UniProtKB/TrEMBL annotation, chain A:
Keywords: Membrane, Transmembrane, Transmembrane helix, Transport. It comes from Agromyces mariniharenae. InterPro entries: MetI-like, MetI-like_sf. This is ABC transporter permease. It is a multi-pass membrane protein. GO terms for biological process: transmembrane transport. The chain crosses the membrane at residues 7-25, 99-127, 148-168, 188-209, 254-277, 297-318. Belongs to the binding-protein-dependent transport system permease family. GO terms for cellular component: plasma membrane. Residues 100-311 form the ABC transmembrane type-1 domain. It is found in: Cell membrane; Membrane.
Length: 326, 553
């Protein structure tokens, strides 16, 4: 119990620090949303409009920074993330609700697939080390070493442009209305296949490598030798004794990688024109849209924190040694 | 040229007559084609906000606000001196010094919910902007009394609005019976009750569809369904345009001849509208070497504008050829007689002669040395990543080197450029745009108006090059406030004399409204032969263009 309590205090302090940094960083950045908007339009919005735009975004009043900070906490605690400038007057929470499911859905599924397949392959290679299967390792590492955007562009070139199997951009057929129809769900899966595939290919090496090395280490442990001496089947020893122990570090890094799903997908979303939170954050930074930036950062921070907590507790539950004190 | 202007004018008038006829006769009864016209914009996923008055709302960003709500008049930016075409207003009469406009409302127009459109709606729409500074982007603090008498609305302004007349013509009119009860800033206008040719059918974050308004005063449009698709970036839209997935839109396509038009030369078109928007090389008039008019002049003579327009602008941005820096044909009517036909030409020898006369010399290695004995060097600055600007700077640099001056191109961080370099004058030369406007006033005022002069190191709003010339400042004020054409012509003469002889900044290329479209499904878009309107879908002219589109067989 004390373990959980200590961790919780730690996470509350981290959360406070994250929100505070999250508040100050955008305000320390040079530039303001009105100028960004005028610049984006390069002469199409007359500079006469500046005053009106400051008023529209609520930036016309000079409020001291500490007051803004207190107000920010106040609105945050009431569950309000403010109003976006770039998509005025839509609330930030609506925008995040609109973008987040796409990212979590696509990258989440891809991460799980990558983890499952990678761990399985890693077990296999680790168990039969020294065979032809070892050559899978350099191949997969090659794909993870290639910069992701390059890999994705090649995938688009080969599978969309040349072969025409998959669409090159977007997250569903634009002519469909989002809803729980088979047609729409099918379209989402069809459009998501290529991006998901590139994510799996570029991230699978880590899972294979981690699992293989642990299996190699574990398989020389005494309990594995004992299990084999007992005459258990090869398969039972591999899954029940070796893999089961080897998977521990995999689980914790899996939990951590879940946290990075939300934040780490900007490049994928840009290359595939996918409507997720990474791209939204990119737009928000370009438009100096503080409320939207803060909203996105907050969601990303929370996701990483929650994943950390999860990893902490899962690991503690799986491995009693981490709970011991002193 | 003259002939085609007349022809365009005749078509516009004919169209106007046809509409009046239709509304009197009670609907044209035309059939809409079942072909979809897809309009593409590179603006990313949208939030469901249809407010046609709040900058940044989905309806303004994608442009579908302009087919539901309409403006008072239609103007042709290519020929800004032409009389505007009546639209929701039968006429707009200005007093001599442009401080009062009398707007006559069109008869027989209905809102799409069946209510009558009246002069009260016009008055309300303008009063709304006066009362709500957040939405008043066109005439901040400039509205006076607004009153209604029968079907006429009288709008007073606190200052002369000669140079802003178009802004009044382009105001979108909203229904009082709906907007009076809502907070106009926060209103998301889910139903979109307007007078225009289309009704909102369905909104999704990536695509908005519109259906024809059966009660439209101008007769039922031929385009059966309009779809506004939004793409995450220019690449997405370029792909959609080249595959025909989107058939109308605007994005900067480098090498558009090969990338876009060559894919279907018969149907794919790119046309430039008009306007007075230009990009200017601002020269810092208060530091070396540009504090010397002779050197500014000399540089002006070696900047190869044809090459810049062709290579840096990929032919998308038209070349500036008149010495007054005015884009043509929009600016034709404003070119002072003495500069009519005076073309900008690269003239290295002439430039060297100018420099020699001003006391410049060349050292042993052919480097230019100014009269004080120091070598002439300067830096050209623009944000990194603005590739068209940076390529233009490279060509300017090459020109300067022909004179023996050493120029370097230095990319800056975009935010630094915006916040430190441009406003404080921390540059020697940098490219920046000017406001468009409907007369050359904005162009010249943005470059050389002493009224916006501030010393180096203080925040300048325009006149970044710190040019000071009292005669020009007075002439700019006179042009804006004048009540007759003669005074304006006189003022323009003074301004252009100073612009040509002093070269306070160099106009590099014009930046008109450009659009791409495909004539596979519909024809009748503005073209080079018939430039009847700004060709982009995101403006009040969308209603006019849609009225002219015909389905292909």
């Amino acid at each position: 119990m004390r373990f959980i309590g200590r961790r919780l205090v730690f996470y509350v302090i981290t959360l406070w620090a994250a929100v505070t940094i999250n508040f100050f960083i955008p305000r320390l950045m040079p530039g303001d949303p009105v100028k960004a908007l005028i610049a984006k339009n390069q002469g199409r919005i007359s500079t006469d409009a500046m005053d009106s735009l400051y008023a529209l975004f609520g930036l016309d009043e000079q409020v001291p920074l500490w007051q803004q900070y207190l107000d920010y906490w106040k609105t945050l605690l009431s569950g309000d993330l403010g109003t976006s400038f770039a998509y005025f007057p839509t609330p930030v929470s609506d925008l995040i609700n609109q973008a987040l499911p796409w990212t979590v859905g696509l990258v989440g599924v891809a991460t799980i697939i990558s983890f499952l397949i990678g761990t399985l392959i890693g077990t296999g290679i680790g168990w039969r080390r020294g065979t032809w299967a070892d050559s899978l390792l350099p191949i997969s590492t090659f794909f993870s070493a290639v910069p992701y955007f390059w890999l994705a562009l090649i995938a688009i070139f080969v599978f969309s442009v040349t072969l025409g199997w998959f669409p090159a951009s977007g997250s569903y057929d634009r002519s469909l209305v989002p809803g729980w129809s088979w047609e729409f769900v099918g379209s989402v899966i069809y459009y998501g296949t290529l991006p998901a595939l590139t994510i799996v290919i570029s991230s699978i090496a880590g899972w294979i490598l981690g699992m293989r090395n642990m299996v190699v280490t574990v398989s020389s442990e005494d309990y594995v030798t004992v299990a084999q001496a007992k005459g258990l089947s090869e398969r039972a020893v591999r899954t029940g004794y070796a893999a089961r122990n080897a998977v521990l570090p995999q689980v914790s890094s899996f939990a951590l990688s879940l946290g990075f799903i939300v934040g780490g997908t900007l490049i994928m979303e840009m290359v595939f024109s996918y409507q997720g939170i990474g791209f939204m954050l990119f737009n928000a930074v370009n438009a100096k849209d503080y409320p939207l930036m803060q909203g996105c950062f907050l969601v990303i921070t929370l996701a990483v924190l929650v994943a950390n907590i999860l990893a902490d507790f899962v690991y503690a539950a799986l491995d009693p040694r981490t709970r011991q004190e002193g | 040229m003259r002939k085609s202007i007349l022809a365009a004018g005749a078509i516009v008038v004919a169209a106007g007559l046809a509409f009046t006829g239709c509304s009197a006769g009670g609907g044209g009864g035309g059939d809409s084609s079942n072909k979809v016209l897809t309009i593409g914009m590179p603006n990313g996923p949208q939030a469901p906000n249809q407010n046609p008055l709040a900058t940044g709302s989905a309806s303004l960003s994608l442009g579908y606000a302009y087919v539901v709500y309409e403006s008072l008049m239609q103007i042709n930016e290519l020929h800004p001196t032409d009389e505007p075409t009546p639209w929701l207003a039968e006429s707009v009469e200005w007093n001599d010094d442009s401080t009062q406009a009398i707007i006559t409302a069109r008869d027989g127009v209905k809102w799409s919910d069946g209510e009558d459109f009246t002069a009260d709606d016009i008055a309300y729409s303008i009063q709304l902007r006066k009362d709500t500074p957040e939405l008043n982007i066109d005439f901040p603090d400039q509205y006076g009394d607004i009153s209604v008498d029968g079907n006429q609305v009288t709008v007073d302004f606190t200052t002369s609005q000669y140079v802003n007349r178009d802004k009044l013509y382009k105001l979108l009119i909203v229904p009082e019976h709906i907007w009076a009860d809502v907070d106009p800033v926060q209103f998301t206008d889910d139903e979109m009750i307007g007078t225009g040719p289309y009704l909102l059918d369905q909104f999704t974050p990536q695509s908005v569809t519109m259906k024809p308004n059966p009660g439209y005063w101008g007769g039922q449009p031929k385009v059966g369904t309009l779809r506004y698709d939004t793409f995450n970036d220019n690449n997405g839209l370029t792909t959609a345009l080249t595959t025909g997935e989107a058939q109308w839109g605007w994005t900067f396509i480098p090498d558009y001849e090969n990338t876009f038009i060559a894919k279907d030369p018969e149907h794919f078109h790119q046309v430039a509208g008009g306007g007075f928007g230009v990009d200017v090389l601002y020269l810092n008039n208060e530091t070396k070497p540009f504090d010397d008019p002779a050197f500014r002049q000399a540089l002006n003579l070696v900047v190869d504008r044809a090459e810049i327009s062709e290579k840096a602008g990929y032919g998308v941005w038209p070349q500036i050829s008149n010495v007054t820096g005015l884009p043509q044909p929009s600016g034709d009517a404003y070119i002072a007689p003495e500069f009519d036909g005076a073309e900008l030409e690269v003239d290295v020898d002439g430039a060297k002669q100018l420099l020699t006369d001003a006391g410049y010399t060349w050292d042993a290695s052919d480097k230019l040395v100014d009269p004080d004995g120091t070598a002439v060097t300067f830096t050209l600055t623009n944000p990194a990543g603005w590739s068209d600007y940076l390529s233009a700077l490279d060509i300017i640099k090459a020109g300067a080197e022909e004179l023996g001056a050493t120029a370097t191109v230095e990319p800056a961080v975009q935010d630094t450029w915006f916040n430190d370099i441009i406003p404080f004058g921390n540059f020697q030369a940098t490219l920046h745009w000017t406001d468009g406007g409907s007369t050359p006033w904005n162009l010249y005022s943005n470059i050389m108006d002493g009224a916006s002069y501030v010393p180096l190191g203080e925040t300048a709003n325009w006149n970044f090059g710190r040019y000071q010339n009292d005669a020009v400042t007075q002439a700019l004020a006179a042009f804006k406030g004048a009540s007759d054409d003669a005074t304006r012509a006189e003022a323009m003469q003074v301004i252009q004399d100073a612009f040509v002889n002093d070269a306070p900044g160099l106009v590099i290329w014009s930046r008109p409204a450009v659009a791409q479209y495909s004539t596979v499904n519909y024809t009748g878009f503005p073209s080079e032969d018939d430039p009847y309107a700004n060709p982009q879908p995101t403006g009040p002219q969308a209603a006019l263009i849609l009225s002219k589109l015909e389905p292909t067989k």
